[in-house]
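Write out the 3D structure for:
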Amino acid sequence: MDKKNKKQKKKTGNIWIFPSLVIAIYVALFFVDQDKTLHALDYAANLFADIVPILFAVLFFMFLFNLVDDKKLKNLIDRSPKAVQYIAMLLLGTFSHGPVYAWYPLMREFREKGIGYGSIAIFLYARGIKLSLLPMLAVYFGFKYMLALTAAMIFFSFVQGILVDILMEKISKTH
């Protein structure tokens, strides 16, 4: 067996360590307090059911994104002004739902295709704007507050993106 196959086999074997430990802990806890353990399992199952649709959406977007020709996308990104990238990532972040960690693989794909760190920061910051929750925000806090908060989040997402781009540029110059 060559080194590559041994490394792959080792990675595959390591993948089961964490789930095995979790199962062992649940089995041990079941003997300590059955009700709490069953409640925790029920909570975990519900959380998993909430996350699965988001993961499928992210995987679907990653699939679509992989269909795009890297050279054409890189050329388009290089030719488009930063403002266009920033606005696109703001809109994507605003329309995204679910847990943020589910979007990290897609953001890595974006980064590998040439999207800058600042644009990714804008996406992550803009996730705080939830279009579906804006009416409830207006009901509880008033329409003016909803507009002010949303405008501030949009403004500061751009500020954050610009600052991250500047910081990453300085870091890359020193290394």
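The two ends are 38 Å apart (CA to CA).
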